[in-house]
Write a structure and sequence with these properties.
Length: about 260
């Protein structure tokens, strides 16, 4: 991670009354693959995002300052940072949150992500998350299955080409549901990659499988060795965040993902 002092050099205001996206380093258009990594089931997205920052030597390039978010700062390398951060290297631009999005913030912040990415014009957009399994069932699975949801036909074709399984029937809840619906409405091409995961227990194994799928989709090698070997350390490190996220998921209907929709298309 970069140790540079955060200075508000270039500020992109997406919605003046709610939040602003601050770019410390301006991102070139059309050059990078974008990733959205948010806390949800098993903290799959956040754990995957943390791993990508370390494994790919990504540097802090910006953050989201949102009045609608709780007044929280995270401390890294003795420096305070907002909890929703932007990291990048030559290949990727990552949006990652280190705290759960409160229910009232999910829609405006998710919309901000999409609006910012529309401005950046990335090569592709991939969201990483978990789809919960009952603990007894997840405990019996050594390698979690990975499923995908596509918001446009072009993304559907790309996922088909890479032979990643689709989620044919199911429910997505929380911030990712808002992102998928809004992206579909605006025809923003997003691949949502989710791995089978514990609901309320950190799941580095599931996170590793989403990273592998990301690597497959982007055709850029990404090692998951450190994540798999350091799984227990990761679980301890994110234990408090998992507790906070579990509370938030109760208000965002995340447990509905255990269910099958009543109607088939």
């Amino acid at each position: 991670m970069s140790d540079e002092v955060m200075e508000d050099k270039d500020v992109m205001v997406v919605q003046e009354t709610l939040f602003e996206i601050v770019e410390l380093v301006e991102q070139p258009k059309g050059k990078k693959h974008a990733i959205i990594a948010l806390p949800d089931a098993g903290l799959v997205g956040t754990i995957a995002g943390m791993h990508l920052v370390q494994a790919l030597n990504m540097e802090l390039v910006g953050y989201i300052d949102a009045a609608i978010m709780p007044p929280v700062a995270v401390i890294h390398n003795r420096k305070a940072r907002p909890p929703i951060q932007l990291y990048a290297n030559d290949d990727f631009l990552l949006i990652v949150s280190e705290i759960p999005l409160p229910a009232e913030a999910m829609r405006p912040v998710s919309t901000a992500f999409l609006q910012y990415l529309h401005e950046v014009e990335p090569k592709s957009i991939t969201a990483l998350g978990g789809t919960p399994l009952p603990p007894a069932l997840r405990s019996q699975i050594e390698v979690p299955e990975v499923y995908a949801v596509a918001t446009t036909e072009s993304v559907y074709d790309r996922i088909m080409d890479k032979k990643i399984k689709f989620l044919d029937e199911g429910i997505v809840a929380g911030a990712y549901a808002i992102i998928l619906l809004e992206a579909q409405r605006q025809r923003i091409p997003i691949a949502y990659i989710m791995a089978q995961a514990f609901l309320n227990f950190p799941d580095p194994g599931a996170a590793a499988e989403t990273v592998k799928a990301l690597s497959t989709l982007t055709e850029i090698p990404i090692s998951t060795k450190a994540l798999v070997e350091g799984a227990e350390e990761v679980r301890v490190r994110v234990r408090d965040l998992m507790n906070q996220t579990a509370t938030t998921m109760q208000t965002s209907s995340k447990e509905q993902e255990f269910q099958i929709p009543a109607f088939y298309s």
